[in-house]
Write a structure and sequence with these properties.
InterPro entries: Homeodomain-like_sf, HTH-type_TetR-like_transc_reg, HTH_TetR, Tet_transcr_reg_TetR-rel_C_sf, Tscrpt_reg_YcdC_C
Largest sheet: none
CATH class of the largest domain: Mainly Alpha
Keywords: DNA-binding
CATH superfamily of the largest domain: Tetracycline Repressor, domain 2
Distance between the termini: 75 Å
GO molecular function, one term: transcription cis-regulatory region binding
Radius of gyration: 20 Å
CATH topology of the largest domain: Tetracycline Repressor, domain 2
Pfam families: TetR_C_3, TetR_N
Protein name: TetR family transcriptional regulator C-terminal domain-containing protein
Number of strands: 0
Length: 206
């Protein structure tokens, strides 16, 4: 049975993970090195290896914790709530995550772009199960005539694409908009309008 970690050990582990998040989100897994992570953490490489045996171990630890956080906004969609309000709240939560956790978003995106070597099992398991569950909720709302009929999984994909873009392509977004623009405030208004129109029931004619 392993002994509980001391306060110093917990603090150093957290420092290493924070440094690794900075390095991995900037350089990707392949471009990052243990030397870079140790330098950002302010620790020696041997000290870092005392806590984590490899770069892979650090990366896996980060992504494991990230997935749970990443799925929380979708988990919060209430099957008994108002459909439009629940979807809009999900869009808002995802956009807030892009604003507040841009490095985490890029870390996740980098792994996906590399073929998900670290996240494949979680994507094919927990993430897919949750998307399937919420797609069934969306489909029920559509079948009940409460929102427009759309492919549910693709609706979720669209929300991911239109919110996470602001984290993954932050430099591009800010360069195009220029100074004096708050991309997240502007995106909130735009996405609310976009999805309200997309989900609106077609008007009867005649």
């Amino acid at each position: 049975m392993s002994r509980p970690r001391t306060r110093i050990q917990r603090k150093n582990s957290e420092t290493i993970l924070e440094a690794a998040l900075e390095v991995f989100s900037a350089h990707g897994f392949r471009g990052a090195t243990l030397d870079q992570i140790a330098e950002v953490a302010g620790l020696s490489k041997p000290n870092l290896l005392y806590y984590f045996p490899s770069k892979e171990a650090i990366h896996t630890e980060l992504l494991t914790g990230l997935l749970d956080t990443w799925l929380d906004p979708l988990r919060a969609m209430d099957p008994e709530g108002d459909p439009l309000a629940e979807i809009m709240a999900y869009v808002s939560r995802k956009l807030e995550m892009s604003r507040d956790y841009p490095r985490e978003s890029r870390l996740f995106a980098n792994d996906i772009l590399q073929g998900a070597p670290f996240m494949r099992a979680a994507i094919e398991g927990e993430l897919t199960a949750l998307v399937t569950e919420k797609s069934q909720v969306l489909q029920r709302w559509m079948d009940e005539g409460r929102i427009a009929a759309l492919p549910p999984a693709h609706l979720i994909f669209s929300i991911w694409a239109l919110t996470q873009h602001y984290a993954d392509f932050d430099v591009q977004v800010r360069a195009v908009l220029g100074e004096g623009h708050d991309p997240f405030a502007e995106a909130t208004d735009y996405l609310e309008t976009l999805f309200a129109k997309l989900l609106a029931l077609p008007r009867e004619t005649g």
